[in-house]
Fold this protein.
Amino acid sequence: MAELGWPAIFLRLALQFWPVWLALLVVFAVSLRTRRRSGLYGRLFDSPLGMVGFGLVMFWVFTALCADLLLMFDPLGQIAQMKNKVPGTITPDGAVYLLGGDNLGRDVFSRMVMGARRVLAIAPAATVFAFMVGVTLGLPAGYRGGRLDAGLSFIANLVLAFPVILLFYLLVTPEIRATGLPAALAAVLFLFPVLFFTLLWNSRFFTRPAKRNLYVGLTLALGLWAWSGLAFNADPLGVWSMQPNMLNVFVSVVFVNAPTVFRIVRSLVMDIKTRDYVAAAQTRGEGPWYIMLWEILPNARGPLIVDFCLRIGYTTILLGTLGFFGLGVSPESPDWGSTINAGRRLLTIAPHPAIVPALALLSLVLGLNLLADALREQSLKD
Amino acid sequence: MLNFLVRRILTMLATALVLTFMVFWLTNLPPNLEKLAKSEGNARMTDAEVTSWLERNGHAQPLLKRYGEWLGVAPGWTSERGGVVSGRCIPRGASPGDSARFCGVLQGYWGQSTVFKAPVSEIIATRLSLTGILMFWVMVLMVPSALLIGVLAGMREGSKLDRVLSTASIATTATPEYVSGVILIAVFSSSMVGLKWFKGTATSAMEGISFENFFLPVLTIALYGMGYIARMTRASMSEVMTAQYIRTARLKGASFGRVVMRHALRNALIAPFTVIMLQFPWLLNGVVIVETLFNFKGFGWTLVQAAGNNDIQLLLGCSVVAVAVVLVTQAISDLGYVLLNPRIRVP
């Protein structure tokens, strides 16, 4: 079979990604133009490393969004003659496997693109949930202190002392789904966003009942609707649902991340609650939740945004670890961890099926870490 | 100080108890026990047979009782069937009268592995010693190079050297073991690149370690932890370098090298010490991944085998070791921080 050389492969790859380049160009042009007016986000473009990080992250975000445009083959479709073929091999019907074929004759490039969508669908969402849990529990623990803090900190340290891999092996098995434990855990963890927003609106608008009722009512209606669908798969309209596999993975990743967020929020709150504006709010007679959510939390945003970026990267690594051990995802799944796992067996003969997703994961996490580092540096300049 | 120590140890024991109980509960869930019955007895058992097998082998008791037995604080179960008394503490063929009443982790009885057909304590001892060798070399490679990178980057904050080294450390923290391992194997041992400097597996390292078969796994684990320690060292070093006494030393006329070595280094290494100790739990993760990737049959590999094959006793044994490692290193890091840092006084 004929093969393309490396220059031709790179050229074709670059052309294949045209929607991503276009989107990146627009984003960078707009951001650079408005950077003096857009606050912390704009100052990101003052540091070259920050721009590189932002570019890498946005590259994968756009790849995930336009995955359907970028695909050259069905990520699950197999062509028997293409097993373990090197990058640039031409298929029997004239198309090209730009990054070669894997051990089942599937296109490595298309699987990588589809994998980006899988990873970016779970990692940021799981991080958001972990933050909701960590913030909702960390605020009162840091603000109130005392026995509540001692109890919550003990539980958080308990989860943190649990070796992550062991926890995954115990939580993400098909057997455990039969016991209903993941669903129970999901029911608890998914309740926190609803709780968070209810407290948020109620503490702000409780003096204006009409507005309060509208906001809290909307939150409760939407939140509980989504909650019933996501945690119990019992959504009457069938809009919100999650595959049991996915739920399992999602819940365990949130569970592992939440205690660290809790500890960060707690220590930030303990620092901020000694400030004068908190004392002023207390003197005004504001309620504790108003002070926590509307006085302390906005002032803790800098470190939290930085940690959020880092944590998405860490969650991506955790998802990859799960895939690497074949936990919780179907073997067909194109996510990067599983692809690395499938490719590693033939690593010394045909390394490309494992190398491609490995480099993809590396560049995404690197981008997030560079972004976090630049944000930290820029926010310290205040 | 004594009060602090006692409270620390009590919290540690409570954490260990709760954690082992959680692992015990999760490994002894009904579906796992059913699988155990079918793999130990026979795969085509009916539900009634499974229930009776579980009852005969002491798995039908209340969870707390079973946990107590496993821990060694409750007497082991016994059951009589056809005139033969069998029980948790009665070895096959021994008479019930001679056997101990209690047998659990506290008495040194860790159970029998169903996969390796050997006592769990024996398996863990041999596997742990193999992993110990791996960890030793990881530490030898990781700690000095991380500290060196951190100190070099932190001594002149914002310099070109700092930028390069900091970016490199960010890159290593963004590379989990399964990514760096795959890349290293592909570059240094695949026929596609053709360098073939090292071996892609570490199976032969279990008999004799050589640079060729052991460098890649050690490097893979060390890389991921290195960046983090280096960044912490850099942060602490650059903070120390802005301190008043450093300026005094410089104004006194001490050379830059002497200031770094004599005045800055010791104070800058307090924070990294804590970080290095807290890295152990993460190294455990790395060990599991790398041992699986390089097929090095140490502790991490054993954990994967135990978890993958529903080997309940072995998995429990592994988790006891893992939890102990995490808790002990946390305690050492707390204690070391208090002892090293003169500014912290414990009432």
